[in-house]
Structure formats: structure tokens, C-alpha cells
């Protein structure tokens, strides 16, 4: 009964965000300019506050996420973290590769209304300079997390737990409930600039590119996991499919964990690896959102006629995004909270672009979650093949059959 209530609540948010998109689209013409300006000012204020505290959120989640690896085996920790990082990084680079090759062929319409001097202006301006760069928080949280996961400290664990509790409380009790308000002002801005309808039309073909890429990527992962054996491939897919459907319907990776553990136990005939890897990676290994958000971001750059980022900027973005995956919290839109500063610094996003992509991404989130869950199943299989030979070199195997 609790899970059902939670599922309804999770599904409710995307519906509210859809409603937020439709209000300016259909009624923006009759809404007074002062009201639009008011909501736009609120969105900009919320964005400024969010950017200010994002480094603390990133640090706390990275720190606590790495400390949650409850094992004293140094090699296991290092190999697992490296494998998750590399897998996410490859998915991000794949997203860029698909964006460069497929999206230009869609001939996405360009929005150029931002040069219009009659743009909507905020009713007030409020901003506090960011004290700590996002990159410092990412690297600091990662280094502290690695250090104290290897050198256990009860004090460090208490601090990490408290920071995680504060950050999670802020996101769940403040940011997520106010997310529609955060988006509404930016959507009013797009409507006032007469680019909202055109922008939403752009995402229709992009949706098929995203879902098609995600499906192909999952097929390739499971083919690799099965050593390209079709019989084993279909067995793996059949076992993990219930978890995939659960992820799609609940939009929650955590809700699928029991089913994904069972599926992994069947696929590997090993309960230890399933109960070790799945809980450790359920929120930090998310290839579905990596692929989807990258393609969505690049489509947004194209449609707003922004210059493509340089190769150096893309590599820096991919590196920090892969690192930021360790800091993503399991709340709706959690990945975008971490990503906003990186999107703006390395891809040149504006507040309006961030607001729009947040709403659209949330509508696509069921597909991304389903791919995240299914991808974790494949990752567990592939990781077990990587780790076992390494561990046997020292005559030790973590994943002994139970």
C-alpha cells in the first residue's frame, strides 16, 4: 500500500510539470506582463539560491555515497568506483556522438527571438555570488569519500550522514515541491519571447532519438554480457524485464532494487554479487539519464542557435558529469540539480534553457529510469567478469557462490 501511494506521488509530479508547460502555452497571451515578470523573478531567485548551495549538496552526496560502500576490501572499492565512472563516461560520450551525427539531420528549427529587445524582464533581481566552484565540490567530495571509505572513521561517517540528511531534506521538502514554480517563470519567459511552442515541437523527433539510442545501448550491453550468445541474451532480458517495467511505472530506481537483485541472482546464479553490487550502484550508475540528458542538452543548444562547445569543454563536461553521477540523489530531477552549474559553465546554458530542459527531461524520466535499472543489471554481469580474474590473482574472490 505504501509503495502504491509512493508511485502515485511520483507519477503526479510529471503531470504537474506538463500542466506547467501548458499554462503559458495556451494562456500566456492573456496573463498580464507583470505576473509573468513576477514568476520569472521567482525562478531566477530560486536558481541563484540553488547555485549557491549546490556545491554543499554535491559534496555531501559524493561523500556519503562513497562511504556507503560497506566493505574493507580496497581493491574491490577501487575497481567498482573506476568501473562505474568509466561506464558512465562512455555513456556520456556516446550521447555526444549520437547528438553530433543524428540531431543535425533532423534540421531542428532555430529560435532567435532572444535578440528581441522586448524580452520579458524580471520584476526584481536578486543574486548572491557562488562561494565554492562546483568542480571543487566534486573533486573534494570524491577524494574525501575515497579516503574515508578506505580509512574508516566513525566521526567521518556521522558527518557524512548528517550532511546527507540535510541535503536530502532540502531537496525532498523544499526543492522538489517548489520545482513547478522554479520552471514556471522560465517557461513564461520562453512564451513571452515567442519560442515556447517551437521549442516543444523540436523535442518530438528528439524523443525518438533518445529512446532509440537507449534501447540500442542496452541491447549492446547485454550482448557483451552474454558473450554474444543469443540464448543467454534473451534469458538475461527475460529475467530483468519485471524490474525494467517497475522502473518505468514508478520512476524510481530504488523501488526496483528487490526485483533487480532477484533478476541478477538468476542471471549470475550468485546471490552475493547481486546483494553487493546492486545496492552500491543503483543510484550512481545511471546510463539512461546519461544518454538522455546529453542528447536533450545538445538538441537544446541547436534549437537556440548556440555555438557547439569546443572539444576541450565537452571533455571537461563529460568528466565532471561522470563524477557528478556519484552525487545524484534519488529524488525527481535530482540529476538536473547537480547538472545545472555544469550545463551553464561548459555548454553555455541560460536559465530559460535550464528551466525548459528540466520540464522536458522530467516527462522523459520514466524511459530513463527503465534504462538505468536495466543497465545496472548488465553492469553487474560485466563487473563480475572483470573483478573475478583480478581477485583470483591474490587467491581471493569476493563473490564466492552461496
State the share of residues found in helices, binned by percent.
over 70%
Ranges where pLDDT stays below 50 over 5 or more residues in a row are: 1-10, 113-118, 394-402
Beta-strand percentage range? under 5%
Give the beta-strand count. 0
Mean of all residue-level pLDDT scores: 81
Number of discrete helical segments: 13
Radius of gyration: 21 Å
**Termini separation:** 33 Å
The gross shape turns out to be globular
Q: Sketch the major β-sheet.
A: none
Order of helices and strands: HHHHHHHHHHHHH
Structural class: mainly alpha
Q: Concise description?
A:
The protein is mainly α and 402 residues long. 77% of the residues lie in helices and 0% in strands.
What is the topology?
Elements: H1 2-27, H2 33-67, H3 74-102, H4 134-150, H5 154-192, H6 196-225, H7 230-250, H8 253-268, H9 271-281, H10 287-303, H11 311-324, H12 334-346, H13 351-392
